[in-house]
Design brief:
transmembrane; endoplasmic reticulum
């Protein structure tokens, strides 16, 4: 018997494993190529957007909340605990009704995944607080030690004006005025920044001119007084010599 041995030169069929690996790699590429959703801005960015009215809904809510708190505590004479309890009851009832309406309409439940405080936001807030304290200390040092008469006089005038205004108002009203000013002045400044800077530069130049003029007058009066004192001393010495 003749046994015929045939060797197949054809390559063996590819194993399905590389195809699966290729599919997995393509899936990884598509997943990495797809844009990641925006997780959200930091707390400082959100506060900046609220102050500059880039998020008008949040800015309006902040202004209305501050107004309602001021009216409740200052005008209607409510206590802080009573007002806080009413606000908490309203928020809980609104959240309960909103969640039940979503369930009745067959919609997805509320996404509460973003309701957390991240480590980055806490570190960012701590850094901002440290920077503000350092800037305050530097400003205090520059005002108290360096010879910047304009900044020194402006700081004293601002503190004096604040003390006078605070004598007629209480702390709650001052805080409310501060919130209203904080929600209005930065927007106006950003909108008319060039004009305000130009006006501030003109005022600063005029103040420096007046300051130099006043200092020259003071030096001139000091010189005249010193000359008169010298003349009086010389006359007194001459009289003493004559009497002797």
């Amino acid at each position: 018997m003749q046994i015929s041995t045939t060797t197949s030169t054809d390559s063996p069929p590819p194993s399905p494993t590389p195809q699966l690996e290729n599919h997995s790699e393509s899936n990884l590429q598509t997943s990495t190529a797809s844009p990641t959703p925006d997780v959200g801005k930091t707390s400082t960015d959100i506060i900046r957007d609220v102050i500059l009215w880039k998020r008008k809904s949040y800015s309006v809510v902040a202004l209305l909340a501050a107004t309602a708190i001021w009216l409740g505590l200052e005008v209607y004479g409510l206590t802080f605990i009573t007002l806080f309890s009413w606000i908490a009851m309203f928020v809980i009832a609104f959240t309960f009704l909103w969640g039940n309406i979503h369930m009745l309409l067959g919609k997805d439940p509320l996404d509460m995944s973003r309701m957390y405080i991240s480590d980055e936001s806490v570190v960012d807030a701590g850094t901002k607080f440290r920077e503000s304290v350092e800037n305050s200390l530097r400003f205090l040092f520059s005002v108290s030690t360096k010879r910047e008469w304009f900044v020194f006089a402006g700081t004293l005038a601002s503190l004096g004006l604040l003390s006078v205004v605070a004598s007629y108002l209480d702390l709650l009203t001052l805080l409310y005025i501060g919130i209203v000013v904080g929600l209005t002045v930065p927007v106006v400044y950003v909108k008319y920044e060039d004009k305000i800077k130009d006006l501030g530069q003109r005022v600063r130049v005029r103040c420096h001119i007046y300051n130099s003029a006043v200092m020259e007058r003071c030096h001139m009066y000091y010189r005249t007084i010193a000359e008169r004192v010298k003349k009086m001393k010389s006359k007194l010495q001459q009289k003493k010599k004559k009497n002797e």
